[in-house]
Amino acid sequence: MSITRERFDAIRREWGEVGSWAVWADAPPGEGVKARVGDLSMLDPDENPGLLATVNPDVVMLGINGSGAPTAEPFSSFHDPSPRANHFKLRHAYRGTPFWGAYLTDTFKGIPSYGARRTFEYLRANPDVVEAQLARLLEELGTLGSEDPLLVAFGRDVHRILQERLGDRFRIARVPHYAHFLSKEEYRAQALAGIEECLVAGSAADAVRSPR
After folding, report:
1. 60 pairs with which residues across the strands?
2. CA torsion through residues 142, 146, 150, 153, sign
3. Which residues pair with 65 in a beta bridge?
4. Is 171 helix (H, G, I), strand (E, B) or coil?
5. Are strands 102-108 and 56-65 parallel, antiparallel or unpaired?
């Protein structure tokens, strides 16, 4: 599903502080694996004329939560050029696949960032926050305009929450978190396998439900 410039601009205006797209510049030959991860010109339709035909709101990839503060530039989430960031694994995992161009966002936005374990402890202790955050996520998905997006959860805990709360409404794949200690090649293999497993299971379920 491609989107219009008007919708793209609406997404950037309303959600650009917390969301982004799975589109990255290539790392030039001879440079490190993280080179140009932070090049945001790739996410500007005026500078990248093919962008609107590339972005894919039918696939939404979801992390845990950001730093708790909006990013400095629209769509800079998941494009952190710092040495400690691992977004280069996402670039390697999805380039050349149908999932390149997916929408990227965090499930929980603007909450304190304690690290994964303590963040989920906080969420378990504050179910009202979970409900409010998921309502906000549904609003975000509505802005994308996709009628049946595939949700791709980064990690077991995000997948569990999404499956429990939204599993009756969406297909939800589970892939490893990009911070895991995996090579970029192994990360790609496991991520694509996780999505394929979800799609195969969904197709089998549809076949069972379909009248013979």
Report:
1. 103, 151
2. negative
3. 108
4. strand
5. parallel
Structure tokens at 40: 């945001």
The pLDDT tens digits for 141-159 are: 999 999 899 999 999 989 9
Rounded to the nearest integer, the mean pLDDT of the chain is 89
CATH topology of domain 5-209: Uracil-DNA Glycosylase, subunit E (3.40.470)
Burial 115-147 (b: 16+ CB within 10 A, else e): ebeebbebbeeeeeebeebbebbeebbebbebe
Q: Which pair of tokens denotes residue 186? A: 């192994």
Both tokens assigned to 107:
């499930």
Q: Is the pLDDT of residue 71 over 60?
A: no
* Sheet with strand 56-65: strands edge to edge: 20-21, 102-108, 56-65, 150-154, 171-175
Domain regions of the chain by residue span: 5-209
Cβ count near 196 (within 10 Å)? 11
Question: Tens of pLDDT along 177-187?
Answer: 998 889 999 99
In the block, residue with structure tokens 């979970």: 130
Residue 45 exposure: Cα atoms within 13 Å on the Cβ side: 13
